[in-house]
């Protein structure tokens, strides 16, 4: 059944006033008597009247809404980012409209077309794993839509960006594995062209080089859809486990990939860390409850959402064109637990 919201015309017809009188009364105009305003306001409240947001946006030339584009809300990292976004947006009087790409370039374009057709005042986006061309975003940006990138960014679009120090996070994670005696360390990343893949892969390689460990390209694998599809990850894991010298440890550089690696190990009977150690990027609140507890690189997701939203609102509400943009890089935190500790292996084997 279609829901028909009450309108100013409905109130005017019911009470015998003109639409302009009802409109002015609801705006608390001094031109309308207190008695009339009280009568109209009471009727509007009783029938749950709310101003039409589309009509208001046409009148005010703003929708008081922010578009958000992420790969998947179910991803713990992105859900925490969205919480950070809404914590700022709500207090500033903005509503959030969320679109999921599911790592698809085509769905990213469809979502952006929908958001722009709804006349959002600004856009917060982390691009999909499939996205290699940013012409659709450049077009919106050139037309004057304020855009702020977070996590996965388009480096050649001049606007604010909020990212994590992917290089240091990966360097610290790989160094931790090396210091625990692991030398054959595999890396599984997002698609090769992703902005975060390069930073994380560079950190991984630098840690190996600094510890005089040769870089073995056969140990470096990619998931074009960021682990969203288990079959894709399973294929890469099979390649690694069928090497003549299988890896001693896995460094998984995204939340979905990390969980996929653990699922693969469980299905194949591989013990962590006895057979293969694991470190992963993950913001899941349950990684410490796993057996063994998982060593992770945590990202300040909530803070990232807050900062990106503050930047966007400043762009949207700026009186003059903004020409200086900030690239904010937030620190990542290595949380060491049992899944990567050599002493834990010795304890379990005794």
Automatic annotation (TrEMBL):
Occurrences of domain HTH cro/C1-type (ranges): 6-50
Origin: domain of life: Bacteria
DNA-binding listed as a keyword: yes
Keywords of the record: DNA-binding, Transcription, Transcription regulation
Keyword Transport part of the UniProt annotation: no
Pfam families: LacI (PF00356), Peripla_BP_3 (PF13377)
One GO MF term: DNA binding
CDD domains: HTH_LacI, PBP1_LacI_sugar_binding-like
InterPro entries recorded: Cro/C1-type_HTH, HTH_LacI, LacI/GalR-like_sensor, Lambda_DNA-bd_dom_sf, Peripla_BP_I
All residue ranges annotated as the HTH lacI-type domain in the record: 6-60
Protein name in the entry: LacI family DNA-binding transcriptional regulator
Origin species: Pinibacter soli
């Amino acid at each position: 059944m279609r829901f028909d919201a009450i309108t100013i015309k409905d109130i005017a017809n019911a009470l015998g006033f003109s639409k302009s009188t009802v409109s002015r009364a609801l705006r608390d105009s001094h031109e309308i008597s207190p008695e009339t305003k009280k009568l109209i306001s009471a009727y509007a409240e009783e029938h749950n009247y709310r101003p039409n947001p589309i009509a208001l946006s046409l009148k005010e030339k703003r929708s008081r809404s922010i578009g958000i584009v992420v790969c998947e809300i179910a991803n713990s990292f992105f859900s925490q980012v969205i919480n950070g976004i809404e914590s700022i947006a709500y207090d500033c009087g903005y509503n959030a409209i969320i679109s999921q790409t599911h790592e698809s370039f085509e769905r990213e374009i469809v979502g952006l077309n929908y958001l722009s057709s709804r006349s959002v005042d600004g856009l917060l986006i982390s691009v999909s794993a499939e996205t290699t061309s940013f012409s659709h975003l450049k077009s919106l940006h050139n037309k004057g839509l304020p855009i702020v990138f977070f996590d996965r960014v388009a480096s050649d679009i001049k606007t604010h960006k909020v990212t994590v120090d992917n290089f240091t996070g990966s360097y610290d994670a790989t160094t931790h594995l090396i210091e625990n005696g692991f030398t054959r360390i595999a890396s599984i990343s997002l698609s090769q062209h992703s902005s975060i893949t390069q930073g994380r892969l560079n950190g991984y390689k630098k840690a190996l080089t600094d510890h005089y460990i040769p870089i073995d390209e056969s140990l470096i694998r990619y998931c074009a859809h960021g682990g969203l599809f288990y079959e894709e990850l399973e294929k890469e894991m099979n390649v690694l486990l069928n090497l003549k010298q299988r890896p001693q440890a896995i460094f998984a550089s995204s939340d979905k990939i990390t969980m996929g690696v653990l699922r693969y190990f469980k299905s194949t009977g591989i013990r962590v860390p006895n057979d293969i150690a694991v470190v992963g990027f993950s913001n899941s609140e349950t990684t410490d409850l796993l057996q063994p507890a998982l060593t992770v690189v945590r990202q300040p997701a909530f803070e990232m959402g807050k900062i990106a939203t503050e930047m966007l609102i400043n762009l949207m509400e700026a009186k003059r064109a903004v020409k200086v943009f900030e690239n904010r890089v937030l620190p990542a935190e290595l949380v060491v637990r049992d899944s990567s500790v050599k002493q834990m292996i010795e304890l379990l084997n005794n």
